[in-house]
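To the team - flavin-adenine dinucleotide complex, inputs and output below.
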Amino acid sequence: MMTSEDGKPAIEVLGAGPAGIAVAYALAKTGKADVEVLERAGAIGGNSASFRIAGIWCDYGSHRFHPVADPQVLADVKEIMGDDLLLRPRHGRIRLGGRWIHFPLKPLDALLKLPKKFALSLLADSTFGRFRPRHGGPRTFSSVLLDGLGPTISHNFYFPYVKKLWGVEPDELAVKLAERRISGSSVSKILLKMARMLPGLKGETTGKFYYPRKGFGQISERMAEAARRHGARFSLGTEIVRIARDGNRVTGVVLNENGRQVRRETTQVLSTIPLTTLVRLIDPPPPPEVLEAARAIRFRGMILLYLVLECDRFTEFDAHYFPELSIPISRMSEPKNYSASTQPEGVTVLCAELPADPGDRWWQMSDEELGAHFRTWLAQVGLPVTVPVRGCETRRLSHAYPVYDLDYERHFNRVDEWLLGLDGLLVFGRQGLFAHDNTHHAFAMAYGAADCLDERGRIDRARWAACREEFSHHTVED
Ligand SMILES: Cc1cc2nc3c(=O)[nH]c(=O)nc-3n(C[C@H](O)[C@H](O)[C@H](O)COP(=O)(O)OP(=O)(O)OC[C@H]3O[C@@H](n4cnc5c(N)ncnc54)[C@H](O)[C@@H]3O)c2cc1C
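Output:
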């Protein structure tokens, strides 16, 4: 084990998204290791970072910190954020059957606003659901939803939404997607969730979310500051270009520092970068079947469009959800409404999430063209832009969502098994474990990883296996 001058194990963390930052924080705080975090981007926070446009803090699409977070994670986030962490009511709208309905759903609002035909079909699905013949053959995302939720909500909401998000038909997606993403897996569970929104049945945080004053990324910034105070180092603008191994032992990482290749000798690497990238960087390369499996694993990308408008506020809502296929964006948020900020005056930003893949037609469009499309889509849903527009900026995420197609599990398991056999390497985080997880899950994974390292930097593999089992039960909050 390589050690630092003060005898602590020297650990390299790959990636400074929430997972990389949180593991650095946990290891530095307990004094267990000497930690350096290597990050390709010029800023920390990964997909959970924030940046300013027209003086307004913006995120990579709608980001909320969910109160269901593990108690230790929530306690740490509250401690590092102090008064800068706001508890905000969720106030969104979803378009169903051409009508706007409050989202998350509220019983009275849904009763009054859902189109009557839709509501009656839903009621029929729920009443007669148990008599519906089950789908035979291999189980897929679509068969599980049709069996559990019935045709009305599947065909009008989930199927078009997943097709838009992943660019894949619902019957080509794995059951796992339903397990990880859909907490209301039957109509009765959805009704129960709605009932919890009723006054009297509401918990303290029901229908609410945590959000920092200066954008979601402030959580990562604050945690990184705390990690630095405990001695962790962050090297930004540092791309990992090679991970050296000797047999099944990791021996070093090679970095690209301002065009110069620099090798760091290390015997312990904690990786949170996409597992497909990680496999490609390992030298000598893994066996051909592992490389082939990694090539078959696919991430979905996303373009974020930021339209800058000259008005205090465009709508009162934090987010608008668009399940229908007739417009290609899945969600639109207004960042000012997340933090309830009124500043700066006379300007607001709308952020649209456009699922896309690197190289496709959306990916190649200029910001101006995308901005013009954005305005057309808004007009289509009855929200025409009638105020002056300053312009449109975009950001592109190549790794927004893991694609759980019908074969992904087989490919993932092959890669995962091989990586688990490498001494001195631990892989976790949303990109590392190809998981649909939220930020609080990325933190929980990082804390689990830190716990599995002993004072000499060795990994307790049995404990890690138990952690992985726990991570597999994470359910995504939207
Ligand atoms: C549109 C959208 C909305 C979301 N909304 C929410 C929400 O409301 N609430 C919530 O809790 N979560 C939300 N999430 C999920 C959240 O963004 C992730 O869970 C979180 O960012 C995962 O953290 P991570 O550290 O595992 O990965 P990432 O944030 O992806 O970080 C990985 C890091 O690795 C770096 N990296 C990659 N390759 C290299 C390399 N070769 N060398 C060096 N560094 C490298 C990247 O630059 C990045 O900084 C959302 C995600 C998306 C896409």
